[in-house]
Amino acid sequence: MIDWMNLPPLSALRALAALAETGSTVQAGARLNVSHAAISQQIKGLEAHLGLALVERGGRQLALTDEGRQVADAVIGGVSSIESVIERLTGQDAARPLMVTCTPAFASSFLMPRLADFQRRHPGVSLMLDPTPVIQAIGPGGADVGLRYGTGEWSGLQAELLLDTPIAIVAAPALVGQGGTVDPGDLTGYHWLQELGTNEASEFLRWHGRDLDMSKGVTSLPGNLMLDAARDGRGVAVIARAFVESDLVAGRLRLLYEDRRKKGYYLVWHPGHIRPLAREFMSWVRAQARRAEGEGHGYAGQPVAGRGDAEIT
């Protein structure tokens, strides 16, 4: 039996969950339509109620402690279950569009050429595709499914490797030549192309002990436009190798470096919030990745079962 009288105030638990999902008091406040100061006050009150430190306050941003993460995950999981039941009982679940968040490059290079197949299989489904480099919330109040590039570690979420592909530094042969070794220092003398909303060019050069020469400029633009610009010789581009494999084979682009610090594109979902339609989309996108690998489109490695895969297949 639940001891309702000894539970912390729901408003405080909600503030902690919003902080866990957004990573900042400002965004958490916007999510709950309160001020960031109110979020901080609620969490301080919750810490006093529990006698536990729930956040670390040493840096510029608040980070959850292990205890804070455990409480937040429990709140998010419980609220997600309540939301799912209410949506199912009221019919809201079926009426709500399927929302998928991914990078612009993934949307233009992988999803859009294949999306007609999903629509043929699910003709009555409304889909909201959000192509953005910004990491959006996945789960209650956010996207159903995410397709993210990284190492597979996102707090509170489950992830399954979909496309095993390194980041590639590429350019048109007309810009950098046909052959020979190219040192990262040599590339600082070129104009760079990167996906809108990222700092991939400067991050790559900094990793190699170089700085981006801003006198040469850098252009940030959506993934599909970045590829067109790279093919036209307008700069050195940073993109997942899977999306330029055909260009490399055809000689339209030259591979200069590979960055394998991150693993590839992951299918990401909230473990306590998976609608039936989201399950169907996840199964479909897995099949598309396997098919692309079989057709030799450069997607190295078929999807690998990740944490919690048995729950959704």
UniProtKB/TrEMBL annotation:
Pfam families: HTH_1, LysR_substrate. The keyword Transcription regulation applies. It comes from the Bacteria. Gene3D superfamilies: Periplasmic binding protein-like II, Winged helix-like DNA-binding domain superfamily/Winged helix DNA-binding domain. Keywords: DNA-binding, Transcription, Transcription regulation. Residues 8-65 form the HTH lysR-type domain. GO terms for molecular function: DNA-binding transcription factor activity; sequence-specific DNA binding. One of its GO terms (biological process) is DNA-templated transcription. InterPro entries: LysR-type_TF_proteobact-type (IPR058163), LysR_HTH_N (IPR000847), LysR_subst-bd (IPR005119), WH-like_DNA-bd_sf (IPR036388), WH_DNA-bd_sf (IPR036390). PANTHER family: HTH-TYPE TRANSCRIPTIONAL REGULATOR (PTHR30537), TRANSCRIPTIONAL REGULATOR-RELATED (PTHR30537:SF79). Belongs to the LysR transcriptional regulatory family. This is LysR family transcriptional regulator. It comes from Pseudooceanicola sediminis.
